[in-house]
Write a structure and sequence with these properties.
This protein is of the alpha+beta class. It has one domain. The protein contains four helices and six strands; from the N terminus they run H-E-E-H-H-E-H-E-E-E. It has helices at residues 2-21, 59-64, 70-83, 99-107; strands at 30-31, 39-51, 88-89, 116-128, 133-148, 154-164. A six-stranded antiparallel β-sheet has the order 1-2-4-5-6-3, covered by helices on one side. Strand 5 and strand 6 (154-164) form a beta hairpin. The longest helix has 20 residues, at 2-21. It is globular, with a radius of gyration of 23 Å. The termini are far apart. 10% of the residues are buried.
Length: 166
């Protein structure tokens, strides 16, 4: 009987602890992101791939990229890396890369800044339903360049490096 009483008490304690840790569906987490205080977290971390160079020259991609200045984005990231304002990281193991690696990458015949065709953002999404505003905060960006098959067609993308924003 004593054994059963202890088990019931343990189950009640664990149930209470678990239920107090779970956020209810109708409760929303409000955050202060340096603006109005009405923003709720939609995604605290989400990874978003964006093609920034039209590989097939289709109309929809051209339309989607019509206001993008890809060269400015790529040059700004590389300039910040070379100035030491941003630290490049290896994409797969998140190890810091030194400037010599970036210089050797730029000498690689497979690589060219013009071939950078995809970026991957790690970001958070916030929404203010009262004012109908949505904000995305970018934590990092990965630059990837096109890799071609023997017929000269894009077969995929290879990560160059990733940087984290302050």
């Amino acid at each position: 009987m004593k054994y059963i009483t202890y088990n019931i008490i343990h189950v009640l304690i664990i149930s209470t602890l678990l239920s107090s840790c779970i956020q209810k569906e109708d409760e929303v987490q409000k955050v202060d992101i340096g603006q109005e205080n009405n923003f709720i977290v939609i995604a605290d971390t989400i990874i978003n791939d964006v093609v920034i160079k039209n590989p097939d020259y289709d109309e929809w991609t051209d339309y989607s990229l019509r206001n993008l200045n890809k060269e400015t984005l790529v040059e700004a990231i590389f300039n910040s890396v070379y100035k030491g304002d941003l630290i490049p990281y290896e994409f797969f193991n998140d190890a810091p890369l030194d400037i010599d690696y970036i210089k050797s990458l730029e000498k690689d015949p497979e690589f060219s800044r013009d071939r950078i065709a995809k970026v991957q953002f790690e970001e958070a999404w916030y929404y203010d339903s009262e004012n109908q505003k949505m904000i995305k905060k970018v934590y990092s960006i990965m630059l990837a360049y096109e890799v071609y098959n023997l017929q000269g067609e894009v077969k995929g993308y290879k990560p160059a490096f990733k940087v984290y924003f302050k």
